[in-house]
Amino acid sequence: MTNTLTGEHLTVENFGILDTNTMVKKYTLDNGHGQRISVINFGGIITSLEIRDKAGNPIDVVLGYDTLQEYVDDSFFIGCLVGRYANRIKDGTFELEGVKHQLEKNDGENHLHGGVQGFHKAFWDIKPITHEKDMGLLLTYTSADGEQAYPGALDVSVMYLLKQDALEIRYTANTTKTTIVNLTQHTYFNLNQDHEQNVLDHRLQLGAEHMLEVDEGSCPTGEILNVSDTLFDFRIPKQIGSFQDGNGHATLAGYDHCYVLENQGALAKVAEFERADSLVKLEVWTTEPAIQLYTGNYLASTGKGGTTYDKHCGLCLETQHHPDSPNHAHFPSTLLRPGEVFESTTRYRWG
Contact, 324 vs 335, CB < 8 A? Predict the structure, then answer.
């Protein structure tokens, strides 16, 4: 059962005004057990997620900015909800029921993360809630038929649930016309107290035997590769920066690759990463069939408190369906038809 949340666990404050003269508010939940999350209407962005390390020290584990304008100007998708289609669609085109749809090309020749004015730039209605034993925020947005050239009016709801040991994100959506949907959350995690320190010494375990081969534009070729005996194999925990040698030389700029999961739609643990001193660890659980590992290869901005975010200062683990799925029949389908409900759950659990 879902009810409205009020009282000492909730703080709501003005965060800034958009060009449309719309007031953006920041909603902060504090569960009283050392966990706290702040979210704004603009982009459904998680601006902070404070947990306790194993020594009991508070730590904000996500990158972010201090002002609304910085989020408006941001080009790195920091902390936001992503849709209608997370990741890339090759040449920005797909065919649906015999009709070719041309999307915006905002990543070279490809379409990325729903376009320039995707869900990350939308205004989300937010309602503080309690759901069963947890407090949370219910975010809703209606994407109009034809918005960013996608067919169908899409009603989307996202529930951020703050548990004592986890942040759970539940997505649902329905449409008025057959369309494609692929949603994710694009928070950059950094488990260091100082976010100017990069995450290359964080250890990662990712339970995936296969990944998608990509072309020069980072779009899938359709081939599914085995990760065995490659730099992409994280089935046994290792440092994220293991693609570099002792002199900092590397054969990769970092990771920006989609891993194929085997969880068959059930909520399952698929990854965990931890700080070098093991005082902070996060697990990733999801119902999704894939996860994009991105190591902030192009970060270059100034974040909260004047912190400098250079490349590799954040790690994204974006649970999702496969990129460019509409153009590859053997990939899990991202079609959503009228009368159907899209549902997805991801949980970030700390310990």
Answer: no
Question: Of 334, 12, 351, whose CA–CA distance to 173 is shortest?
Answer: 334
Give the tens place of pLDDT for each residue, 177-227. 999 999 999 999 999 999 999 999 999 999 999 999 999 999 999 999 999
For residue 150, give both structure tokens.
Answer: 């996608």
Q: Is 283 a catalytic residue?
A: no
Query: In whole angstroms, what separates CA 334 from the centre of its chain?
Result: 17
Catalytically annotated residue among 257, 318, 321, 322: 318
**2-350: what fold?**
Beta-galactosidase; Chain A, domain 5 (2.70.98)
Cβ atoms 192, 199 nearer than 8 A: yes
pTM for the whole structure: 0.96
The verdict on whether 288 is a catalytic residue reads no
Kindly report the number of other CB atoms within 10 A of residue 72's CB atom. Answer: 15
Quick: pLDDT tens for 5-21.
767 799 999 999 999 99
> For 137-171, b where at least 16 C-beta lie within 10 A, e where not — what string?
bbbebebeeebbebbbbbebbbbbbbbeebbbbbb
The number of beta carbons lying within 10 Å of the beta carbon of residue 276 is: 15
Catalytic residue among 186, 202, 312, 322: 186
Task: Dump pLDDT digits (tens) for 58-103.
Answer: 999 999 999 999 999 999 999 999 999 999 999 999 999 999 999 9
Burial class from Cβ neighbours inside 10 Å (0-12, 13-18, 19+) for residue 238 reads: middle
Q: Is the pLDDT of residue 244 over 90?
A: no
